[in-house]
Automatic annotation (TrEMBL):
The lineage of its organism: Eukaryota, Metazoa, Chordata, Craniata, Vertebrata. The keyword rRNA processing does not apply. It holds the Pfam family Glyco_hydro_38C. Its cofactor is Zn(2+). The keyword 4Fe-4S does not apply. This is Alpha-mannosidase. It is an enzyme of class 3 (hydrolase). It comes from Poecilia formosa (Amazon molly). It comes from the Eukaryota. InterPro entries: Gal_mutarotase_sf_dom, GH38_C, Glyco_hydro/deAcase_b/a-brl, Glyco_hydro_38_C, Glyco_hydro_38_cen, Glyco_hydro_38_cen_sf, Glyco_hydro_38_N, Glyco_hydro_38_N_sf. Binds 1 zinc ion per subunit. Residues 1-21 form the signal peptide.
Length: 989
C-alpha cells in the first residue's frame, strides 16, 4: 500500500522534445558481472546520491493478486504489473547505465512464464550484468506482525528457489527490502540474517523513533535480532529509508504523478533545468544531514509505478546529467543509478561502527493518534484460516515425502502440495494475513487457500492409501470447529485417522458431531477408548446455521505417534435423546489431575486457577469487553479506528455483561463450563482429562452495530500476579520479547494513546509473570494484546468498525457474508497454563507447537479392511524435547528438504536450553539417508558458501563468528534457537 494517500491524477501524457545521447557501453562488462561488481563507480570526495528505480507491487490489496498482474479492474486502482515488467525491460535495454530492482517473485514468476525464450535470454543478460537486480526475492513482501515464522521461511524459500533456478548466482538477492510493512519484527531480522542477506532496508517506523534517529544520525544501525544465537548469526545491518519508499518531494516522474518533467530545451517554454538542479541539490544536502556517510539513497518509485517506465527513466537520465554537470562549477554532489546492494556496499566500505539495536519496531505510529495496532487482530477468521492452512501444508508436505511418488499420482488422482504452498506464500503478504485488504481480496486469499487444500487432500489421500494399504475413500471435515461433518453425523460405523506432523507424539482431544447417544471407540491396538457424548451447545448451533444438524458431540482423546498416524474406530451403540444433561447451578470448580479452575458462583465468571502439581494458585477473573472505535469526531484528532489503526474513543472498555449464564458438564473425558454472556458473546471453559492447559473457546459475533458504534472486542484476564508493568509476547511465533507499559527501550515515549500505544502483536503466545507464577496464554492465530494494568493481560478477538481509517484501503472493516449477513461470527481458542517461571517454557513451547502444527483428521466410512495398517510413524524415535521438526518436504525426485530447530531460547529452560545432537541417519523409519548437504535458512545457498558482510557495533567488540563443529557428518548439533536446513538424498528402505 502507499506510504501516503495522495490522490494522483493519472494518465497525464507528457511530451518531450529534448533529445539526449548516451555514451553507450562505456565500460566493457564481463558476461556475468552482477552483484557488488556491477555497481557504478562513486566519487569518494563527493556526496554520492544513489538513485534506486523501483516499484512496490502489492501481492493483493485493493485488487486481487491476479487483477494486479493483468492490470484488471483499473477503475479500483490503476495498476498492472505485467506492463511494468514489459516496460522496464524495454527501458533498461536503451541505456546500460540504468538500473531497476524487482522484489515480489510471485509477480515476476507470473510474467516470466509468459515470455518467449529470446526475451528470457535478454532478461538473463540484464540480470547477469546487474542492470536488473532482485532484492528481497520472496514470493511476496511478508507482513511482520501477524505472520508465523514457518510460513515466512516457506514463502521466502519458494521465491528464492525460483530465482536461483532461473538465474543462478546472479539471481540471489543480497538485500532484504521491507519498505511497506507496518512495523518490524525482530524475528524477521533474525530470519533474514540466517538467510544470508547482507543488509535490510525498510520505510516505516514510529514517528517519534524516526525523529530521534534523524537527530542522532541513527537511521542506519546494526540489529542484533536474537538473544540466543551467537553473534553475528542474527546480526543484520538495517537502514531506514528517507522518504518511506517514495522519491523526494517534487521528483516523482511516473505517469501516476504530477511533478514537473525536466524541460531542457531553451528554445521552448518553461525551461526549468536550473530550478530542478537547485531543488535536487537542496534535497540531497538536507537528506545527507541525517545520515552518517557521504552516500545517501533515494527511492525513485512507489506503488505500481513504472508501467510506462520511459517517463521515469527519461527524466532520471536528464537529472543525472544536469546535476553532475554542476561538478564543473564546483558542486560536490554526484548522482548515479544504483541499487540497494550498491548503496549497502558503500556503507560497508565506510568501515564505521553502527548503533546496536536489540528490541523491535512495534508498535508503529505515523502520528500521535494513529497507532497501527488494529491490524494485529483485523479479519480474525482469515488469520485463523491462514494458520490452519499452514498446518495442513506441513502435513501435506510430509505425507508427500513419506508416501513417495504415488502421493502425487495415485488411487485418488493427481494431487500436489504446490498449489497450497503458493496460496500460503501469497497469504503472507503485508495486505493479506494482516487483514488490511478490501473484502473481495480477502475472499480471494481464502479461495486460494481452499483450492490449495483441495489439491493437498488428494495428495494426502493417495499417501495415506499407500501407507495404510487401504483404498477406502477418505473424507475431510473442515467444519469440526462448529460441529459439522456429514459423515460422522450419519454413519453408524466409521474410522478416524489422526496424522501428527510433529516430531513427538501428541495427545489431542477430538470432538465429532454425532446424532447417537452412545458410541464405542477403539484405538489402533483394538483397546477401548474412553468416550462421552455431550449435547451440541446453543452457541454452536447458532454459529453453524444451516450447515449441519448434529444434536450431540462425541468426545474422546486420541494419541498420535511422531510424524505419523494412528487410527480409531467408532461404532454407534445407541440412538436416542442425549444421555448427559447439564447442571445449571453455578459451578464452583472443575478440575483434572493437573489443574483446578474455580468460578464465582454469583457471576459464573472464572475466579481462580491452580496448578495441582506445583501447588500454585492465582486469582484469575476473566471477562469480555469492547472498545468503542473512534468514528472521526474526536476533538484531539479526526483519526478513526479501521483495518490498520486501533483508536478507541475511550480508554475504559465497556463490559459486555457482568454475569454469565452457565451450564456445566462433567464426565471422565472433559469438564466444561459453558458461559453465555449476551446473544453475541459466549465461551466454553474446558479441561480435558489429560491436559495441562485450560481451554477457553470463545465465540464472538455478530457484533451488533445498530447503535452506530464500531466495536473492538477483547477478553481480559485479571490476575493476582504482580507484573510490575511488564508482559511478554512472541515475535513471529519464535523468540519472546519483554514489553513494558508506556515505554520504549530506545527512546523517551511521549504518551498519546494510552491503550492503542500499548498493543503488541501476539503470534502464538503471551505471558505475564512474577517471581513465583507465570500465566501463559497460547493463541490459535495472530492477535493484538496488551497489559494495561498490573496483573492483567488483554487480547483483542474481533473488530467490527464503521469507518475507513484513511490509509488507503477505502473500506470500513465490517465483515459479513451470505451466511452471516448480520456480521461475521468468529470462534477461537486460548489455552492457559500456570507454571513456575523457571519451567514455564517447557510447557508452553510444546503447547504452542501443537496448536500451530495440529493433527490432521480424516475419516473413512464403514469397516476397515482387516489388512489396514492402523498405525505408522515416519521416525525411528521421538525427537528430543528441544528439537522441532520444522520442515520436511520433497525438493526434487531424490532429495528432501529438512529443517530441524532448537525451539528454546538460551535462558528459557534449565532442562531444555542445552545444545542437543541429532543423528540424521537414524531419523526416519522408512527412508535411508544417502547424502546430506547443509544450506542457509532459505535453502538458496550452500552453507559453506555463505559469506556475509561483517558490521561493527558501537561501544562493543566486534563479535567473532564462533564456528561449532558437529560430532560427525551425520550427527548435527543444534544450539538454542538455531534452525538448520539440510538437503537429504533419500531412498525408501
Ligand atoms: C577499518 O577501521 C579499523 C579501525 O577502526 C581499521 O583497523 C581497519 O584497518 C579499517 N579497515 C579498512 C578496510 O579500512
Ligand atoms: C542454484 O541453482 C543452480 C542451477 O541454476 C543449481 O545448480 C544449484 O544447486 C542451486 N543452488 C542451491 C543452493 O540450491
Ligand atoms: Zn505494500
Amino acid at each position: 500500500m502507499a506510504a501516503s494517500c495522495h490522490c494522483f491524477v493519472a494518465g497525464l501524457l507528457l511530451l518531450f522534445s529534448g533529445v539526449l545521447s548516451f555514451p553507450v557501453g562505456q565500460e566493457k562488462r564481463d558476461a556475468t558481472t552482477c552483484g557488488y561488481q556491477s555497481c557504478h563507480a562513486t566519487k569518494p570526495t563527493m556526496l554520492n546520491v544513489h538513485l534506486v528505480p523501483h516499484t512496490h507491487d502489492d501481492v493483493g490489496w485493493l485488487k486481487t493478486v491476479d487483477q494486479y498482474f493483468y492490470g484488471d479492474r483499473n477503475n479500483i486502482q490503476h495498476a498492472g504489473v505485467q506492463y511494468i515488467l514489459d516496460s522496464v525491460v524495454d527501458q533498461l535495454l536503451k541505456n546500460p547505465d540504468r538500473r531497476f530492482i524487482y522484489v515480489e517473485t510471485g509477480f515476476f514468476y507470473r510474467w516470466w512464464k509468459q515470455q518467449s525464450s529470446s526475451m528470457q535470454q535478454t532478461v538473463k543478460q540484464l540480470v547477469n550484468q546487474g542492470r536488473l537486480e532482485f532484492v528481497n526475492g520472496g514470493w511476496c513482501m511478508s507482513d511482520e506482525a501477524t505472520t508465523h515464522y514457518s510460513a515466512v521461511i516457506d514463502q521466502m524459500t519458494i521465491g528464492l528457489r525460483f530465482l536461483n533456478e532461473t538465474f543462478g548466482i546472479c539471481g540471489r538477492p543480497r538485500v532484504a527490502w521491507h519498505i511497506d510493512p507496518f512495523g518490524h519484527a525482530r524475528e524477521h531480522a533474525s530470519l533474514f540474517a540466517q538467510m544470508g542477506y547482507d543488509g535490510f532496508f525498510f520505510g516505516r517506523l514510529d514517528y517519534q523513533d524516526r525523529a530521534r534517529r534523524m537527530n542522532a544520525k541513527e537511521q542506519e544501525l546494526l540489529w542484533r535480532a536474537s538473544d540466543s544465537l551467537t553473534p553475528p548469526m542474527a546480526d543484520l545491518f538495517t537502514g531506514i529509508l528517507p522518504n518511506g519508499y517514495n522519491p523526494p518531494e517534487g521528483f516523482c516522474w511516473d505517469q501516476l504523478c504530477t511533478d514537473d518533467p525536466i524541460r531542457d530545451d531553451t528554445d521552448l517554454e518553461d525551461y526549468n533545468v536550473d530550478d530542478v538542479v537547485q531543488r535536487f541539490l537542496h534535497a540531497a544536502k538536507t537528506q545527507a544531514l541525517v545520515y552518517k556517510t557521504n552516500h545517501i539513497i533515494m527511492t525513485m518509485g512507489s506503488d505500481f509505478q513504472y508501467e510506462n517506465a520511459n517517463l521515469w527513466y527519461k527524466n532520471l537520465d536528464k537529472l543525472i546529467r544536469y546535476v553532475n554537470d554542476q561538478q564543473g562549477n564546483g558542486s560536490n554532489v554526484n548522482v548515479l543509478y544504483s541499487t540497494p546492494s550498491c548503496y549497502l556496499q558503500e556503507l560497508h566500505q565506510a568501515n564505521l561502527t553502527w548503533p546496536l539495536k536489540t528490541d523491535d519496531f512495534f508498535p508503529y505510529a505515523d502520528s500521535a493518534h494513529s497507532f497501527w495496532t488494529g491490524y494485529f487482530t483485523s479479519r480474525p477468521a482469515l488469520k485463523r484460516y491462514e494458520r490452519i492452512s499452514n498446518s495442513n501444508l506441513q502435513s501435506c508436505n510430509q505425507l508427500e515425502v513419506l508416501g513417495g511418488p504415488v502421493s502425487r499420482k495415485g488411487l485418488f488422482g493427481q494431487g500436489d502440495s504446490e498449489t497450497l504452498r503458493k496460496a500460503m506464500a501469497v497469504a503472507q503478504h503485508h495486505d493479506a494475513v494482516s487483514g488490511t485488504e478490501k473484502q473481495h481480496v480477502a475472499n480471494d486469499y481464502a479461495k486460494r487457500l481452499a483450492k490449495g487444500w483441495q489439491h493437498c487432500q488428494v495428495l494426502v489421500s493417495n499417501s495415506l492409501a499407500s501407507l495404510t494399504g487401504s483404498s477406502a475413500e477418505r473424507i475431510y471435515c473442515d467444519y469440526l470447529n462448529v460441529s459439522v461433518c456429514p459423515l460422522t453425523e450419519s454413519s453408524s460405523k466409521f474410522s478416524l485417522s489422526v496424522y501428527n506432523p510433529l516430531g513427538r507424539s501428541v495427545t489431542w482431544p477430538v470432538r465429532l458431531p454425532v446424532n447417537g447417544t452412545a458410541y464405542a471407540v477403539t484405538d489402533a491396538q483394538g483397546k477401548p477408548v474412553d468416550c462421552q457424548v455431550l449435547p451440541v451447545s446453543r452457541a454452536t448451533q447458532e454459529v453453524r446455521r444451516s450447515r449441519g444438524f448434529a444434536k450431540n458431540e462425541l468426545v474422546f482423546q486420541v494419541r498420535a505417534p511422531p510424524l505419523g498416524y494412528s487410527s480409531y474406530s467408532v461404532s454407534l451403540l445407541q440412538d436416542g435423546p442425549p444421555s448427559s444433561s447439564p447442571q445449571h447451578q453455578a459451578p464452583t470448580s472443575i478440575q483434572n489431575k493437573f489443574l483446578q479452575v474455580t468460578f464465582d458462583p454469583d457471576t459464573g465468571l472464572l475466579s481462580g486457577l491452580s496448578n495441582l502439581e506445583t501447588k500454585q494458585t492465582i486469582k484469575l477473573s476473566q471477562n469480555f469487553y469492547w472498545y468503542n472505535g473512534s468514528n472521526g469526531n474526536n476533538v484531539e484528532s479526526l483519526q478513526t479506528s479501521g483495518a490498520y489503526i486501533f483508536r478507541p474513543n475511550s480508554s475504559t472498555p465497556v463490559m459486555v455483561s457482568s454475569k454469565a449464564r452457565v451450564e456445566i458438564f462433567q464426565n471422565s473425558v472433559v469438564q466444561e463450563v459453558r458461559q453465555w454472556f449476551t446473544p453475541w458473546v459466549s465461551q466454553v471453559v474446558r479441561l480435558y482429562a489429560d491436559s495441562k492447559a485450560v481451554e477457553l473457546e470463545w465465540t464472538v459475533g455478530p457484533v451488533p452495530v445498530s447503535d452506530e458504534q464500531g466495536k473492538e472486542v477483547i477478553t481480559r484476564l485479571d490476575t493476582s500476579i504482580k507484573t510490575a508493568e511488564l508482559f511478554y509476547t512472541d515475535s513471529n511465533g519464535r523468540e519472546v520479547l519483554q514489553r513494558k507499559k508506556d515505554f520504549r527501550p530506545t527512546w523517551q515515549l511521549k504518551k498519546t494513546e494510552p491503550i492503542a500505544g500499548n498493543y503488541y502483536p501476539i503470534n502464538s503466545r503471551a505471558f505475564i509473570k512474577d517471581d513465583t507464577d507465570q500465566l501463559t496464554v497460547v493463541t490459535d492465530r495472530s492477535q493484538g494484546g496488551a497489559s494495561i494494568s498490573n496483573g492483567s493481560l488483554e487480547i483483542m478477538l474481533h473488530r467490527r468498525l464503521l469507518h475507513d481509517d484513511y490509509r488507503g484501503v477505502g473500506e470500513a472493516l465490517n465483515e459479513w457474508s451470505e451466511l452471516f449477513p448480520d456480521g461475521l461470527v468468529v470462534r477461537g481458542r486460548l489455552l492457559l497454563s500456570l507454571e513456575p517461571p523457571a519451567t514455564a517454557a517447557d510447557a508452553h513451547r510444546p503447547l504452542a507447537q501443537q496448536v500451530v502444527s495440529q493433527p490432521l483428521l480424516s475419516f473413512t466410512d464403514g469397516d476397515l479392511n482387516p489388512n489396514t495398517r492402523l498405525e505408522f510413524s515416519g521416525l525411528q524415535a521421538s525427537l528430543p524435547p528441544a528439537v522441532h521438526l520444522l520442515t520436511l518436504s520433497q525438493w526434487d525426485q531424490e532429495s528432501v528438504l529438512l529443517r530441524l530447530e532448537h525451539q528454546f531460547q538460551s535462558w528459557e529452560s534449565k532442562a531444555s536450553s542445552q545444545p542437543v545432537t541429532v543423528n540424521l541417519q537414524k531419523l526416519f523409519s522408512t527412508l535411508d539417508v544417502l547424502g546430506v548437504s547443509e544450506l542457509n535458512l532459505s535453502a538458496n545457498q550452500w552453507k559453506d558458501e555463505m559469506k556475509r558482510y561483517d558490521w561493527s557495533p558501537e561501544k562493543e567488540e566486534k563479535p567473532l563468528l564462533k564456528t561449532f563443529e558437529d560430532p560427525s557428518v551425520w550427527e548435527i548439533t543444534l544450539r538454542p534457537m538455531e534452525i538448520r536446513t539440510f538437503l537429504l538424498r533419500v531412498t525408501f528402505k
